[in-house]
Specification:
It is built from 17 helices and 21 strands. With about 550 residues, the protein is of the alpha+beta class.
Length: about 550
C-alpha cells in the first residue's frame, strides 16, 4: 500500500474505538440466537481496511468478499458464475460487456444499482491505489483507464455506464478472455455513492457503522487492526436461502502454536498450522483426519532493488550477481525442512497450479525445469556467476541486508535464516544480513525503494499468467526491483492490447517469451509456491478453497 494510505489506516486504527452492530439506517445485524451456527476462523494478519480500494492482502479481501458481492462470484472450482449480475452479454468483437443486475439491496435498504458499479470503478480509477492497475491496459483494459489513471483525463471518459438501474455496460480497449473472472475480485465491487460520500473522508470501511453489505454477511463489529470481529448472516441477501451459516467470528492468531491450541480446545473451527506442526498433527489420531492441504496460490520470492539508492550503490543491478544468489538457494530444502506444509519448490516466475491454457488445459508452469540453466540449485554455476559479477563490479565481497516480515507466518523467519546460511555458505564473499519487521514496514520499504533484498510474496488475483508477468512492466507500482526492459514491455503490450489479443495460442507463447526475459535476467529469485495446511472441525464442511483471488469462501459452508 502507498505511504499516505498506511498513515491513514494507522491513524484510524489508533483513533477509533470498537464499533458494535450498527443501528438506524446502516447495518441492521440482529444478535445471534444461542444455537446459531457461527464458525470461528483464524486470520493470520490484522485486517487494516475494509475499503476495497485500500485493502492489499488476502485476509482483507476474504472479509470484504464475505460482505459484498461482485458481478460474479466463484464456484467450487473457481469458475465465474452469476452473482449481482444474473446474466451478461458480450459483443462480437469482445469489447463491450453488458451486465444485467438482479434485484439486490444494501444492508441499509437501498437497492443495488448499476450506478453503484459506475461510481465504484470511477473511484478506483481516481484514487489509483495499489490494485487500481487491474482496471488499466495491463489487466482489465477498461476503455480510457490509462488516460484517467496516469494522464489526468476526465474520469467521466472511463468506459463504464449505467443506461438504467439494472444495466451496467463496460467498454474495453481490447478483448480480455478472463474478464468475467476479474469481476469477483474486490477492486471491481460496487459502492453505494450516497452512503460513501456521506461519510467523513477516509472513514469508509473502518467500522460496522461506516460499511455497507450487499453480500452473504453483515459486519457486526470491527475496528482496523482488531484482534477479533464478527459477521452475521444477511437476511436480505439475494441468495440468503442458500446461506447455511448464521455468522463468522474472525480471530487474528499470530502464532501457529496458539492456533493449534485453540483448535484442540474447540475455540476455533478452522486454522492454518505451520509446517513444523504437520507431522505431529498427522500422527495424532484426533487431528489426522481433520488436516486438509490446499493451494494458497502465493509465490514467495526474493526481490532485488536494482537502483543506485540501495545495495551499495546499486550492485544488485548486476544480473550475474542476482543469478549467483538464485542458483545458490536449495529450494527443496526450504520446503522440506522449514515450510513443511506441502508447498512446492518453484523455479519459474509464474508459479504452478493456477493458470491453465484454455485450448490445451495444460498448466502454464507445469514444467519447472524449463529455466534450469538460470534457476536451479547449482553451487558450481552460482560461483561462476559470482566470479563474473566480482570481475564486472571490481570487488570480491558484497554485503546486503534482506528484509522480511515477522508477522507473516511462523516459517518465514526460518526460511530467511536458511537463505542467509545457504547464500553465505555457497557464495564466499557474500554476506546477507537479516532485518525482521512487520509486513506493513516491509511493504513500505519496498514501495519506497529503501531496501537491498526482500523476502516477499505475491498471490494471483486472476487465473492468467499476466497476474504475475504484469508486475515487471516498467514503472508498474508492483515492480519493486525497478527493472526495465523495452522488449519485455512490448511483449506485454502485445499480449494485452496489441498483436496477440485475438489469438489465444500466440498470446500464450508470447507470455512464455516474456517469462524467459525475467528469468534470464534474474529479476526475482522464485522460491516456493505456498500451500496451507488447514485443520477443519468435523462439524464444518463446504468451505471452498481457491489458489486465486479469494482463498476461502464460506457461501456453501455448513456447521452441524
Amino acid at each position: 500500500m502507498k505511504l499516505t494510505k498506511k498513515i491513514l489506516c494507522v491513524a484510524l486504527a489508533l483513533a477509533m474505538v470498537l464499533s458494535f452492530a450498527a443501528c438506524g439506517d446502516k447495518n441492521e445485524a440482529a444478535a445471534p440466537a444461542a444455537d446459531a451456527k457461527i464458525i470461528s476462523v483464524m486470520l493470520s494478519t490484522n485486517v487494516m481496511s475494509l475499503d476495497c480500494n485500500l485493502a492489499t492482502d488476502g485476509d482483507s479481501f476474504e472479509v470484504i468478499a464475505d460482505c459484498i458481492d461482485g458481478l460474479t462470484q466463484m464456484d467450487a472450482d473457481g469458475a465465474a458464475i452469476p452473482a449481482l449480475a444474473e446474466s451478461w452479454d458480450i459483443s462480437e468483437d469482445g469489447l463491450t460487456w453488458t451486465f444485467h443486475l438482479r434485484d439486490a439491496k444494501w444492508s441499509n435498504g437501498d437497492p443495488v444499482t448499476a450506478n453503484d458499479f459506475v461510481f465504484a470503478w470511477k473511484t478506483a480509477a481516481l484514487t489509483n491505489e495499489e490494485y487500481g492497475y487491474m482496471l488499466d491496459s495491463s489487466v482489465g483494459c477498461i476503455k480510457n483507464a490509462d488516460a484517467v489513471m496516469y494522464d489526468g483525463a476526465d474520469v467521466d471518459t472511463l468506459g463504464v455506464s449505467a443506461p438504467d438501474d439494472k444495466t451496467f455496460v463496460v467498454e474495453l480497449e481490447a478483448p480480455v478472455s478472463f474478464f468475467d473472472s476479474l469481476m469477483y475480485f474486490p477492486t471491481f465491487y460496487p459502492l453505494n455513492e450516497k452512503f460513501y460520500t456521506g461519510l467523513e473522508s477516509g472513514t469508509y470501511g473502518t467500522s460496522a457503522d461506516t460499511f455497507l453489505s450487499c453480500g452473504a454477511f453483515i459486519l457486526s463489529d470491527y475496528t482496523p487492526g482488531a484482534a477479533s470481529f464478527s459477521l452475521t448472516k444477511n437476511p436480505d441477501y439475494w441468495d440468503a436461502a442458500n446461506i447455511k451459516l448464521d455468522g463468522i467470528k474472525y480471530q487474528v492468531v499470530g502464532s501457529s502454536d496458539n492456533a493449534l491450541t485453540a483448535f484442540k480446545n474447540g475455540s476455533l473451527d478452522l486454522v492454518a498450522i505451520s509446517g513444523s506442526q504437520v507431522p505431529s498433527a498427522q500422527a495424532d489420531a484426533n487431528l489426522s483426519s481433520k488436516i486438509k492441504v490446499t493451494g494458497a496460490g502465493y509465490m514467495w520470492y526474493l526481490s532485488f532493488s536494482q537502483t543506485k539508492a540501495n545495495a551499495n550503490g546499486g550492485q544488485l543491478a548486476n544480473a550475474n550477481l542476482r543469478l549467483a544468489i538464485t542458483n545458490a538457494i536449495d529450494r527443496e530444502s526450504l520446503v522440506d525442512n522449514y515450510v513443511m506444509d506441502g508447498s512446492l519448490p518453484t523455479y519459474t516466475c509464474v508459479p504452478p497450479q493456477f493458470a491453465a491454457s484454455a485450448t490445451t488445459g495444460a498448466d502454464f508452469s507445469a514444467d519447472q525445469t524449463m529455466f534450469a540453466d538460470v534457476c536451479s540449485f547449482n553451487v558450481a554455476k552460482a560461483q561462476e556467476y559470482l566470479a563474473a559479477a566480482q570481475k564486472e563490479l571490481g570487488t570480491d565481497s558484497f554485503t546486503f541486508t534482506m528484509i522480511y516480515g515477522n508477522n507473516e507466518g511462523d516459517e518465514v523467519s526460518k526460511v530467511a535464516q536458511a537463505i542467509k546460511e545457504q547464500v553465505e555458505a555457497n557464495l564466499p564473499g557474500v554476506t546477507l544480513n537479516l532485518q525482521a519487521m512487520s509486513k506493513a514496514e516491509r511493504l513500505d520499504k519496498m514501495q519506497n525503494d529503501n531496501y537491498d533484498v526482500a523476502l516477499t510474496r505475491w498471490g494471483p488475483d486472476y487465473a492468467d499468467p499476466m497476474t504475475y508477468l504484469g508486475m515487471w512492466i516498467t514503472d508498474n507500482a508492483n515492480n519493486y526491483g525497478f527493472w526495465s526492459n523495452t522488449d519485455y514491455d512490448q511483449l506485454i503490450t502485445d499480449c494485452t492490447t496489441g498483436a496477440y489479443v485475438s489469438d489465444y495460442d500466440a498470446r500464450w507463447a508470447a507470455l512464455y517469451e516474456a517469462e524467459t526475459l525475467v528469468m534470464n535476467d534474474a529479476v526475482i529469485a522464485p522460491l516456493y509456491t505456498k500451500s496451507n495446511a488447514n485443520l477443519i472441525s468435523d462439524k464444518l464442511s463446504g468451505v471452498d478453497f481457491h489458489p486465486v483471488a479469494l482463498n476461502r469462501v464460506y457461501k456453501s459452508a455448513t456447521l452441524q
